[in-house]
Write a structure and sequence with these properties.
Strand content: under 5%
Bound molecules: zinc ion
Radius of gyration: 18 Å
Structural class: mainly alpha
Number of strands: 0
Shape: globular
Number of domains: 2
């Protein structure tokens, strides 16, 4: 991406993640660690080494917070080559901003929701980022089939992955981490891939491979 485009999408990331905004640098560092140390003690989120999905989320949160606060510095091999916007990162990480987004969601619900029980969906909106991460990291290394022996427990959770925009093709993704298309076999489909191709075709991004 060009610098201006990157900033535009960085801002959209903040806007749409809202109450559960995730710092892109910390996210990138954890993701690189996950690839290097998949399903071992040094993996930030190994579902087979924790008791339940809740503990997986807490473990991930602790490592995430260490990177955000810079209490812990990453290994050199994982550092650099990620987008950074320190002012927006610290603004999005403020409790007042997170709670402000939460209040906005409640207001929107009050305007648009017609059934009272739908308000029970609010916590999912408050925590959309971590919940999405927990589903991908839990299910993607537990349920489904493997096309490749990656010497970890990564799986392809097909066809549920269709609801997660292809992110549950973990086994394929660990085998080919730099490929934009997570689908490999004839029946597999990664819904994000056509969007990436379209952005490339329009010149918004430039694919390297
Ligand atoms: Zn994985």
């Amino acid at each position: 991406m060009k610098r201006g485009t990157e900033r535009f999408f960085y801002f959209l990331t903040f806007l749409f993640q809202g109450s559960s905004f995730l710092n892109p640098r910390a996210y990138a560092l954890m993701h690189r660690m996950h690839h290097e140390y998949s399903d071992t003690e040094k993996d930030p989120h190994p579902p087979h080494l924790v008791k339940d999905i809740w503990r997986l989320m807490l473990r991930t949160r602790d490592i995430y917070s260490d990177f955000v606060s810079r209490r812990v510095l990453p290994e050199n091999q994982f550092d650099g080559d990620y987008p950074e916007w320190p002012a927006l990162d610290s603004f999005g990480n403020r409790w007042s901003v997170r709670i402000g987004f939460g209040v906005l969601y409640i207001v929107l619900y009050c305007f648009f929701v017609e059934e009272w029980w739908l308000f029970f969906l609010l916590p999912i909106h408050f925590l959309m980022g971590p919940i999405h991460g927990a589903i991908v990291n839990w299910c993607g290394h537990k349920y489904g089939y493997a096309n490749y022996n990656n010497e970890d427990k990564s799986k392809n959770t097909f066809p549920i992955e269709l609801f997660l925009m292809g992110e549950l093709f973990q086994n394929n993704h660990h085998k080919f981490p730099k490929k934009g298309n997570f689908a490999v076999r004839w029946f597999e489909f990664d819904p994000t891939w056509p969007i990436i191709k379209l952005l490339d075709w329009c010149g918004v991004i430039r694919l390297k491979t």
